[in-house]
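Hey, resending since the last one bounced:
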Amino acid sequence: MKGELGMSVDLGIDLGTASVLVYVKGKGVILKEPSVVAYDRDTNAIKAIGEEARLMLGRTPGNIVAVRPLRQGVISDYTVTEKMIKYFVQKTLGKRTFKKPRISICVPSGVTEVERKAVEEATYAAGAREVHLIEEPVAAAIGAGIDISKPCGNMIVDIGGGTSDIAVISLGGTVVNTSLKIAGDDFDEAIVRYMRKKHNLLIGERTAEDIKIKIGTTYPMIEDETLEVRGRNLVTGLPKTVTVTSTETEEALRETTGQIVEAVISVLERTPPELSADILDRGIMLTGGGSMLRGMEELIEEKTGINTMTADDPMKVVAIGTGEYVEFMGDRKGI
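The structure tokens again:
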């Protein structure tokens, strides 16, 4: 155990808009919690972080607010983000280590220098000894088990909570990419808007997410599924229950998912011909929590004519890739 205390630990953090995943070298993903922080407005004291705070979303008294410190993959509240990273790092490592960890953390491919700096500084402030930033699609490709060091084109569509990153990767880097500020959270918002317009029903974010997970689809299904949804009737102001079908969710999500498909097509249009040929052979790989929405594969396949598949355990792919990137860097430096 003594050697263990002196050892440095390598961590890979997928700092997502919806959830934070932490990967520990040699152990895999050992922590996955929502990126939500609840704090007291009056005293600025943090009340809860992670799952505990998520349960408070939309259900707090006036002085306590539950916030997501990351908006669309970018830090919107610096101090809260720093505290959140610190909390997750400590929760992962426990009290056993004295040496500061080496952390690699992923960022959406479209972030600016200022935004990169903010992530870097927050991670150092949370107690990192060394920080490596890695672009989300590259991390997703490594995590999905693709050998990115070869001169071969691979297309990754990473649909997270706040951003969708679409990239063609070859020789360890991105050749063509685009980052859309449309992803899982926007699917939820589209469902909220639809319920308000079609059923005069006001529902919260968590209920919308429930609908998306249980019966949500982006492609017409053979058999319609239904779900009873409770919310507030906008006409009477009283609680009301409505039955929603999966066909309705397809209608609700059509515009949002259409924008992701358009972005995929625009990346394909800018891809060099040699790499286009590779993608036609190898297909498109979907990763991220948003790719778990039913019908996503079929929709992209129908619109592009390219075989599309989802990675195993798409939620964890970026975190695994981020962690393995540290090992990859370590091996290269001979550490």
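The chain is about 40% helix and 25% strand.

Sorry for the duplicate.
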